[in-house]
Amino acid sequence: MTAPAPLLALLDTFVQCFTKPGFAHFTHFIVAHAALWGAPHCVTETLRLTLWHHIKHWTAPYFFMKRGRWSCRQLSRRLLDLVLRRLGLDGPLVLAIDDTLVRRWGRHFDGLGLYPDPTDKNPGAARRKVWGHCWVVVALLWEKARGSWFCFPLAARLFVPQRSLPADWTFQTKIELAAELLDHLVPAGRRVILLVDNLYAKARLAWRDGQVLISRLRSNAALYELPPRPKIGQRGRRRLRGKHVTAKDLWRRRSQRRTLKVHIYGKWVTLEAFVGVLMPSRTLGGQPILALIFPQRSGKLNIFFSTDLTMDPVRLLELYAARFKIEDAFDELKTHGGMGDCRQRGFKANKRHVTLCLLSYSLLRLLSVTLAGAEAIETEPWWHPSGPPSVTRLRRAVAKALGISCGLWSDVQREEIPALPQAA
């Protein structure tokens, strides 16, 4: 049995990124990553899954990951072009950037650092740290219908703390890694709407050419009114910021409140918010921002902002709510996508493993939102739920198409050797 034709058709887009034997290994890895949903995504498990070691020597996949002649950056660009072409996106790109922690165990892993685990909810979790890799990821967000967003992870960079940095590495902050991802991925002249959390709300990402930044600030963030106009004949440099104000003072200005009806998280929400143009702190630069302030149920104030002063406040909140789709993608990638299953110690192999995991997830997501592809890959004609199939359901469909049975304890069983394609 062969892999589903819609998935193989998508893989043909990347044939020019590899040599002929390299494309065969690439196809093997993507099909294996797409089919694995009950076993680790390490090289050994992919060999057991597809019986690729009956076709190639078992050391060849390790060589492909560690020393193969291919570029993660080129794959990410091809993936973005493929998604834009298939979805027909010709307007502004909605991108989300965030980082995620992948726990790692073992010695001599390149780039390991100590980080607090945000998923640990036990008492004292804030004081504990775990070993792992911190990946800064950029993802494309697509709105199929109002409030219905889908996430396509594109590329990742590894952040290493300065105290854990090897002697021959150059330290880069998360902001610098995020800017590097945007520089290498976004086409020149393309307008971008960037969605980030408050950690990435810095001047380097906020005021890039052709880019709009949407994020939030802390409730105690420093805010300023617009600078007053200089008087006629007044000497000296013009002030950059006006009077310092707090979020509580701004919320008390009832004349500047507006009632907003927002569609977020699948439901309509009506709220009252302060809407105005303000000056941020120096860490965000010296340009005005459009700020929205409203209280939570606990009484703590939310501060959302956009660098586009003409943006509709309702649209601002809807776009920021869509940012959490990247968190759903992280959960899927670390639970079923094998993002942290690489057993090779080197940095290059780990980076390539993560890139292939992102690519496999995005291709499955692309199949799920294109109706013809989803119907062609489905292997259970009696199962017709409403809406596009999930990525996990497509993993199961690919596994069944390959004749694979995956149990809870990685007891992978094959009916026959798959006929994986070679490069033309």
What does this structure look like?
The chain has 424 residues and is α+β, with helices and mostly antiparallel strands. It folds into two domains: 5-196 and 326-414, no CATH class; 215-228 and 238-317, no CATH class. Helices cover 33% and strands 22% of the residues. It contains 13 helices and 14 strands. The protein has helices spanning 5-11, 20-35, 43-50, 60-67, 72-87, 174-185, 203-206, 247-251, 313-322, 325-335, 347-369, 371-377, 391-401; strands at 93-103, 113-115, 130-145, 148-159, 192-195, 211-217, 223-224, 244-245, 257-264, 267-278, 289-295, 301-306, 404-405, 413-414. Strands 1, 2, 3, 4, 5, 6, 9, 10, 11 and 12 form a ten-stranded mixed sheet that branches. Helix 2 packs across helix 3, helix 2 packs across helix 11 (347-369) and helix 4 packs across helix 11 (347-369). The longest helix is centred in the C-terminal third of the chain and has 23 residues, at 347-369. The chain starts with a helix and ends in a 10-residue tail after the last strand.
Please render the helix and strand layout as text.
Layout: H1 5-11, H2 20-35, H3 43-50, H4 60-67, H5 72-87, E1 93-103, E2 113-115, E3 130-145, E4 148-159, H6 174-185, E5 192-195, H7 203-206, E6 211-217, E7 223-224, E8 244-245, H8 247-251, E9 257-264, E10 267-278, E11 289-295, E12 301-306, H9 313-322, H10 325-335, H11 347-369, H12 371-377, H13 391-401, E13 404-405, E14 413-414
Parallel strand pairs: 1-5, 5-6
Antiparallel strand pairs: 1-3, 2-3, 3-4, 6-12, 7-8, 9-10, 10-11, 11-12, 13-14
